[in-house]
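Each lists sequence, tokenised fold; shown next:
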Amino acid sequence: MLINLCTCNVSRLDAGRSHIVKIDSSSFESVEEFKYLGTTLMNQNSIQEEIKSRSKSGNACYHVVQNLLSSSLLSKNVKTEIYRPRILSVVMYGCETRSLTLKKESCLRVFKNRVLRRVFGPKRNEVTGVWRKLPNEKLNDLYSSLDILRAIKSRRMRWAGHVVRMGGRRAACRVLVGKPEGKKPLGRPRHRWENNIKMVLQEVGCEGMDWIDLA
């Protein structure tokens, strides 16, 4: 249930050790985290736990099908068709709304390369006869269509345009373009979702453009 906080009277009450958020005639317990549509939401607006949860779920799916991915009876095309819907879709669930740092992007690359090495196996040196695992550069050159970061950026840009085109009456658009009141806390500001949008525009040669007008 979506609640328009702009038109409701919101108050915070102390009830022993717990906190109660009262919205009009309804009361809700204030918690540190909860699940909504399969996504973990934190009271500090942090996505670290959600990223960890997605990674754990992806690893669990990977271990379930790893024997199939390393089987010599299946072709590489069949293995990639197993990887995309069974593993990749689990890790990328809800990725449109996440703000990824370089560290988190590196973790996703490591996960992707580990799975793809299981899918495509090692490569035999024709001269020495030694089997060696494929380097990251070779994986990126041969299997760029499976790049997880490129897919996340594409989904994020598509979602950004979709929300902006909703119009100012929709709650999702108001949250996206709204400016919260109050002062920012001391210290370096956290990496925001909008920063990822601007970085992608810079990568495609649209630096300096207003992404909302562009959408």
